[in-house]
Amino acid sequence: MIDDCGLRPGDSVDRLKGVGDARSRQLGAVGIHTVGDLLFHLPLRWEDRRRIVSVEGIQENGSAIAVRGRVTGMVSRRARRRGLTILEAVFEDPTGQMPVIWFNPRGIEKRLSQAETIVLFGVPKAAPRGGLQMINPEVEVVDDSDRWVGTLVSVYPTLGSIGGPFLRRLIRAALAALENLQDPLPKAVARGLDLPDLRTALRSLHRPAPDIDERGVEMLVGRRSPAHLRLAFDELLAFSLGLAQRREQRRVDPGPRCVVNDAIRRRAVSMLPFQLTNAQRRVLKEIAADLEAGPAMARLLQGDVGSGKTVVAAMAMLIALENGHQVLMMAPTELLAEQHRAGFERLFQETPWTPELLSGSVGTAQRRKILTGLADATCPFVVGTHALIQDAVDLANLGLVVIDEQHRFGTVQRQALMGKGVSPHLLVMTATPIPRSLALTLYGDLDLSVIDEMPPGRRPVRTEIRDDGAREKLYRFLCSEVENGGRIFVVYPLIEASESLDARAVTEYAEEVRRALPDLRVEVLHGRMDSGDRDAVLQAFRSGEVQVILATTVIEVGIDVPEATVMVIESAERFGLSQLHQLRGRVGRGMRQSWCVVMVGEGASEAAKQRLARFADTPDGFALAEADLEMRGPGELAGNRQWGPSNFRFADPVIHHDVVVWARSVARDLSDNGQLPIVAEALSRYHQTEFEILVG
After folding, report:
1. Are residues 111 and 35 part of one domain?
2. How does pLDDT run across 286-297, given as a tens digit for each residue?
3. What is the Cα–Cα distance from 76 to 532, expressed in whole angstroms?
4. Residues 478-517: tens digit of each pLDDT
5. Which of 549, 589, 596, 544 has the alpha carbon at shortest distance from 310?
6. In a domain, 355, yes or no
7. Region for residue 150 given its phi and psi (left: phi exceeds 0; alpha: psi -120 to 50; beta: otherwise)
């Protein structure tokens, strides 16, 4: 029976023993205000202290071990260095003795003097006078009340300066509040999960069962234990319900009225210098239906690099413009925004619509002209960067917002741009391949369109893996490609050399490449360059005056040079698969055979080499995304995180990809039976909302 006078999750953390005003302030500074906050502060890892090693059996292998016995002969002294106290002791068990040292021991000497039996946990290291010693091991006093000893011990992320045994004792005291923890899931939903209730899940994570087997430990470490899955499910369900609420609201709000008539169709046909693929026509039909339907469109357009997403977006822009609405397109970089503006200028040259550019480098007079035109509707079509969401930007009649490379913008930025109008239509585009199961949930407030077909005549880019030993042969190949009319990209992970990364940097190796390719003009391109200098380099590259560009990942998106036939990626193991695929997409945009050469550094791990081999064998971005999901499994992400929000506390869209789909299905059922608001409110007590996760 629950004791109403007992500890509750909502109680202030200062109700716990050992938390006075100072500790309370320390905890509050890192977001821990209640007992419940501590309950949801999950272990970072678990240390297996169930197997006690005898002093006689200790080996120096770099692993932490537990020893059980007592200490004798403690000596505390001040070191010459000001403020440093050293406690030296001898630990012994029936098999032998071992020296132990603590630096600045806080309260340890008193605990040791009062304890008959202790357990030390630490890494044995060679002692100066021979044998082994322990330095700063954790101390656990063995008594009837201390059940951490001889168990699988939870190790927590520190909370400010609070960590170690004190934090464990604090959380152990907080576990009493589990008796008053209300499960947020309806019983009908909980019964169908085959997962533990919330109390059981939290208790088993903080204090795993002493008899947990190796398989259970593996599941804990891999964050795939039933308890982990329950917390991941709850968080993903809260996220999905937030998306569903936003989707339902959008269906209520009317969007700018658009009609697609024969005049617009004729103009669209006259603008296009080529026929659309079947996939492009299918997606354009979906978008046109949204624009005519009534509610504001909210659609994610996903397509592999080079599949023709921008042309489809241009047709959507045409529909909005022809219906008298203003159009904004936001790109993540100035370089990409300028590329889009130039491309739209060519595409719309026979129409009344001329795109303007609004970015940080636009001069004061031109900026003032554009802002005035947006405010009085004389400027209907603008492509820009983050400059579009500044307070000074005011639109008279915003009808359509297009966001390119959606994954580079947060929800705050997206909402700020949408707030420039009254329920404008929204089209977000990404060339980052996202497995469909993840896209449906992570962008669940958007309808999904996929261009899964490449334009005719495109040859697959051939991908080769090479190491430093092949560099001279590579340079000969590059010269041959240029002689045959090709142009070369060489991409590096850094701008300048770094002491911490043994990677080839653009500025450091420019001269080396120029010496290796003396008959070619080699230029550097990176994000720190002045926009005018960047534009000049790209224009010279397009015209053929420059044959080789040494670049950072600033060229990852938006660079369309059909004559570019070779992409060389240095230190390729340092890039994520999605980024590698984006870079590969900068070549193969013409009719000639193109190549991607990935150079592998000497220190690349076997796992990294396997990833690169999979990349070389998988030309399709969506297949590569699924392969990436399969390869990464329950481990760490390969390279930078590439999909969706990274601010979940308990869920990982890759580790818990099956739970992502599961939560979406339950969210849909709750929405259909009218339970969405109630469950969303209950979950919000423990989990962030969808908006907070995306912004956080």
Report:
1. no
2. 999 999 988 899
3. 66
4. 999 999 999 999 998 764 445 344 445 566 778 888 989 9
5. 589
6. yes
7. left
